[in-house]
Amino acid sequence: MKFENIHQVxxxxxxxxxxxxxxxxxxxxxxxxFLVALDRGWDVVDAHFNExxxxxxxxNGIKPPDPEYNSAFEWLRGWPxxxxxxxxxxxxxxxxxQEGGMSGLHGRYSNTWAEIESVINPDVRNGRLExxxxxxxxxxxxxxxxxxxxxxxxxxxxxxEIRIEDxxxxxxxxxVGHHWLYHCNLGYPLLDKGAKLIYRGKSxxxxxxxxxDGSILPAITEKRMNLxxxxxxxLPEHAGSAERGLLVEVEPDxxxxxxxxxxxxxxxxxxxxxxxxxxxxxxANWQHYAEGCYVTALEPFYGSLLGxxxxxxxxxxxxxxxxxxxxxxxxxxxxxxxxxLKRLATHDGPVSK
Length: 353
Known about the structure:
With 353 residues, this protein is mostly beta strands. It contains 3 helices and 24 strands.
């Protein structure tokens, strides 16, 4: 061996930012490095592969959790952006009437601190290359609903890959609503003009602001739906809060796994998101290409994203009985070089109505 300290080649370090937010810095030893915000649901914020940034970051920075961010659209004041923002566990999507009152944008999970169970670094001398964080997030209230989320985030030394495994359990005494979404936010320089989104399947177009009749699901051609998979330069019409996207039933492979992502051939880097279709039956591709606020997100989800008035084709009633759990897993994988990008591109194809 040519080193004595594992952090010379990779591993996990924990600490605090100046504002007190607890974080973990993870270096996979493969060029992929990222920051986990332990006080914001243990989500992945900053992420780089070699010299290239992968994630979109908001101007907010990483703020401590605050219950004020759970109401209406105040979530946007606390959201740091980042490579993975988890949404749920009770609701996802925009504020709307739910059983028990009005929900806030994308639920409470990403505004909840995590309890650290263990931090495991690689032990090369004894043949262990895996590094892992085990954490618990509790979203609870007197009389319920009460959720416990156990998360394992793991990597393998030398591999540019992040694996997230979640188990969401209803630890209360009554049935509760449950929706779950992984908001994977891609930003410059990975996201740039000419890059291409990778996915295929049955799709539905949506855009905001809504039309005069309240509709956010205008009819467009399949040709146009496929055109918006190519990343444009800034779009002046996206200034402010205008946005668009697709809801996609991604076609899984023979193993039941969905493979989605983005390829930027100019820098020779791509990002793949892999997940089981049975866990996360739908995916939203959010697009907002304003000046500065230039972002697209790949969002595999379970449940109802747009609410009953708009997403009748989706599951609009999801619940979790007392004592029961749902498990989710998602893998983010960086690809670099012509051959790896060609393999990622094999998962691409047309979207159709």
